[in-house]
Design brief:
Number of strands of chain B: 2
Structural class of chain A: alpha+beta
Shape of chain B: globular
Order of helices and strands of chain A: EHEEEEHE
Order of helices and strands of chain B: HHHHHHHHHHHHHHHHHEEH
Number of strands of chain A: 6
Strand order of the largest sheet of chain A: 2-5-1-6
Strand order of the largest sheet of chain B: 1-2
Distance between the termini of chain A: 9 Å
Strand content of chain B: under 5%
CATH architecture of chain A: 2-Layer Sandwich
Helix content of chain B: 55-70%
Helix content of chain A: 10-25%
Number of helices of chain A: 2
Largest interface: A-B, 16 and 24 residues
CATH class of chain A: Alpha Beta
Largest sheet of chain A: 4 strands, antiparallel
Distance between the termini of chain B: 72 Å
CATH superfamily of chain B: Ammonium transporter AmtB like domains
CATH architecture of chain B: Orthogonal Bundle
Number of domains of chain B: 1
Strand content of chain A: 35-45%
Oligomer: heterodimer
Radius of gyration of chain B: 23 Å
Number of helices of chain B: 18
Radius of gyration of chain A: 17 Å
Structural class of chain B: mainly alpha
Number of domains of chain A: 1
C-alpha cells in the first residue's frame, strides 16, 4: 500500500476528486494547509500598512491505495491538477505499513 | 446664500418663539417632545450595538469576546453612573458655572401632571436621551485601547468618565455653563461626546502603549487585521442609523412645524455628510494606496457623521456633503499619522471621533452665523485640556494601583482566554467540503458528534 499525498490549488479539488472517483477509488482525506515553494507570496495592505503574506492557502489531498494504482493516480492528479503556472503543487508517495478499517477490523488492501 | 438661509430659518423660528412667549405649551407638544426624546434615545442606544459590532469585527478573533463584554458592560455602567452622579452634575444648577450639583437624579413631573406643560417634556425622557449620549461617549474609548487593556481597569475608567468627566464638561455648554454663555455651539456633540471620547482614548492609548509587535524599532507598522469585515460593516450601518436619533433627537423638540422641519433638515444633512465622508475616504484611499481598504471606507462614513454633528441643522445639503468629505479626508490621513507617532488605535477611533470631532466643531461658523470661531476654539481647547488632564490622572492612578495592561503572555494568548476564559468562536468545524472553491459551510462540533 502506498500513500499519495498531493498539495494542490484549492479550486482544483472538484476536478481531481471527480477523476479519482472515476478510477474506482472510494476514499480520500483533505485538509487545508498553507505553504510556499517557488511561488512567492504577495503583499497585502491593511489600513495603510503593507505586510507580506508568504504562506499561500493550498489543499492537501491524501489517498492510501494499493501499490498497483499509484501510477494511474499520479497521472490523474497531474492531468487534472495542473494549470501550467507556478504554484500547482506537489505529489509525494510514501509506503504505508498497515491499514485497518475501524468498523470491521479488516486490514491490508481489504480495508482500503 | 448663507444670509438668505439664516433669514429663512429665523422666519421659521419666529412663530414658535412667539408661541413660547405668548401661549402655554400644549399637551400635544409636550407629548410629541417626550416621544421624540424616547424614540430618538432608543436609536442612540442602538449605536451601542453598532460600536460593539464595529469593534468586534476589527479586533482579532482571540479578543472578540472581551470587546463584546466591554461594550455591553460600559453601557450598563453609563446608565447607572448617570443616575448616581452624571445627570445632576451636568444639568442641575449649573448657572454659567463649571459643574452642576451632586445627588441622585429622580424624575419630577408634578407640574405636567397638574396640567402645566411648560416643562416641555417628561423628565425621564430627557434623562433617558442624555444618558444614552453618555454611553456613546464612553463607547469611543473601548475600541482604541482594545486587545491589551485589562477589563476591570477599563471599566473602572468608564465609571469615572461617565460619572464625572463627561458630565462636568457637558455642563459647560449643554448644562448652561460658562461655554454656553460664551456662545459655544455644539448641536449634538462633536466636541461634547465624540472628542471627549477621543481625548480619553488618546491618553489611554499613549499611557497603555501599543500592542506588542505592532511597531518595529525602525518604524515599520505590522498590521493586525480584524477578524470579521461583515460585522464591522454591519456595525457601521447600525451607527449610521443610530445617528439619525443622535442628531435628529438633538433638535430637542417635535411639537411644532418649525421643529419637525428642522429635524428633517438635520436628518438629511446627517445622511449626506456620511455619504460625503465615505466617498471622499474611498477616493483618497484608492489614490494613496491603489486599493480601497474597506475598513477605511467604513471609518470615512463615520468621520462624515462626526463632522456634521456639531451643527447638522444649519448647512445646505451641499455644505453638509463638503463638511463630511473633509472629515473623511482627515480621518484617512490621520490613520497613518497616529501610526507614525506609534499611537496604536485598533479601530481608528482617534481618526474618526477625535480629529473629526474637532473639525466638526471648528466648522460650525462656516454654516452657522450665530457661532464664532473664537468661541468654538475656546470650547475645543477647554474640553481638550480638561479631558486630557483628568483622563491621564485616572489612567495613571489605575496603572500604579491595579495595572491597566495585560501581561505580554496574556496579550499573545488573547484577552478572551486570559481575562474571561471564553472564546468568541469556539469549536467551529468545517463540513460539507465541495464546490468550486473547495470549501464551504461550518457547523459546531455538537452537530458533528451525531
Amino acid at each position: 500500500m502506498k500513500k499519495v499525498e498531493c498539495i494542490i490549488k484549492p479550486f482544483k479539488l472538484d476536478d481531481i476528486k471527480a477523476a479519482i472517483c472515476d478510477l474506482g477509488i472510494s476514499g480520500m482525506t483533505i485538509s487545508e494547509v498553507r505553504g510556499f515553494g517557488r511561488q512567492k507570496g504577495h503583499t497585502e495592505l491593511y489600513r495603510g500598512a503593507e505586510y507580506q503574506v508568504d504562506f499561500i492557502p493550498k489543499l492537501k489531498l491524501e489517498l492510501v491505495v494499493p501499490a498497483e494504482q499509484v501510477d494511474v493516480v499520479i497521472a490523474t492528479v497531474l492531468r487534472e491538477g495542473s494549470t501550467g503556472r507556478i504554484g500547482d503543487g506537489k505529489i509525494f508517495v510514501s509506503s504505508i505499513e498497515q491499514s485497518i478499517r475501524i468498523r470491521t477490523g479488516e486490514s491490508g488492501c481489504d480495508s482500503l | 446664500m448663507k444670509k438668505y438661509r439664516v433669514f429663512v430659518m429665523g422666519l421659521l423660528l419666529v412663530p414658535s418663539l412667539a408661541l413660547a412667549g405668548d401661549e402655554p405649551v400644549s399637551e400635544m407638544a409636550f407629548i410629541l417632545n417626550t416621544f421624540s426624546f424616547l424614540v430618538m434615545g432608543i436609536l442612540v442606544m442602538w449605536m451601542a450595538a453598532g460600536f460593539a459590532m464595529l469593534e468586534a469585527g476589527l479586533v482579532r478573533s482571540k479578543n472578540v469576546a472581551t470587546i463584546c463584554l466591554k461594550n455591553i458592560s460600559l453601557f450598563g455602567i453609563a446608565g447607572i453612573l448617570f443616575y448616581l452622579f452624571g445627570y445632576n452634575l451636568m444639568y442641575s444648577g449649573v448657572d454659567g458655572g463649571f459643574f452642576g450639583s451632586f445627588g441622585l437624579w429622580s424624575a419630577n413631573d408634578t407640574a405636567a401632571l397638574a396640567g402645566d406643560y411648560s416643562g416641555n417634556y417628561a423628565a425621564s425622557s430627557d434623562w433617558f436621551f442624555q444618558m444614552v449620549f453618555c454611553g456613546a461617549a464612553c463607547s469611543v474609548v473601548s475600541g482604541c485601547v482594545a486587545e491589551r487593556i485589562k477589563l476591570w481597569s477599563f471599566l473602572a475608567f468608564c465609571v469615572v468618565l461617565t460619572g464625572f468627566v463627561y458630565p462636568i464638561q457637558g455642563s459647560w455648554s449643554w448644562g448652561g455653563g460658562w461655554l454656553a454663555d460664551l456662545g459655544f455651539i455644539d448641536y449634538a456633540g462633536s466636541t461634547i461626546v465624540h472628542s471627549v471620547g477621543g481625548w480619553a482614548a488618546l491618553t489611554g492609548a499613549v499611557i497603555l502603549g501599543a500592542r506588542k509587535g505592532k511597531y518595529t524599532k525602525s518604524g515599520r507598522v505590522n498590521p493586525m487585521p480584524g477578524s470579521n469585515i461583515p460585522l464591522a460593516t454591519l456595525g457601521t450601518f447600525i451607527l449610521w442609523m443610530g445617528w439619525y436619533g443622535f442628531n435628529g433627537g438633538s433638535v430637542l423638540s417635535l411639537g411644532s412645524a418649525g421643529s419637525v422641519i428642522e429635524m428633517s433638515n438635520v436628518m438629511v444633512n446627517t445622511n449626506i455628510a456620511a455619504c460625503g465622508g465615505m466617498m471622499a475616504a474611498m477616493v483618497l484611499v484608492q489614490l494613496m494606496y491603489k486599493k480601497v481598504d474597506v475598513t477605511m471606507a467604513l471609518n470615512g462614513a463615520l468621520a462624515g457623521l462626526v463632522s456634521i454633528t456639531a451643527s447638522p441643522a444649519s448647512p445646505t445639503l451641499g455644505s453638509a456633503v463638503l463638511i463630511g468629505a473633509v472629515g473623511g479626508v482627515l480621518a484617512v490621513l490621520a490613520v497613518p499619522f497616529f501610526d507614525r507617532l506609534k499611537i496604536d488605535d485598533v479601530v481608528g477611533a482617534l481618526s474618526v471621533h477625535l480629529v473629526c470631532g474637532v473639525w466638526g466643531t471648528l466648522a460650525v461658523p462656516l454654516t452657522n452665523s450665530s457661532a464664532t470661531f473664537t468661541a468654538q476654539l475656546i470650547g475645543v481647547a477647554a474640553t481638550a485640556a480638561f479631558v486630557l488632564v483628568s483622563s491621564s490622572v485616572i489612567w495613571l492612578i489605575l496603572k500604579v494601583t491595579i495595572g491597566i495592561r495585560v501581561s505580554e503572555e496574556e496579550e499573545m494568548l488573547g484577552c478572551d482566554a486570559a481575562e474571561i476564559g471564553m472564546e468568541a468562536y469556539p469549536d467551529f468545524q468545517r463540513v460539507s467540503i465541495g464546490g468550486s472553491t473547495g470549501i464551504s459551510g461550518y457547523t459546531t462540533s455538537s452537530v458533528l458528534r451525531n
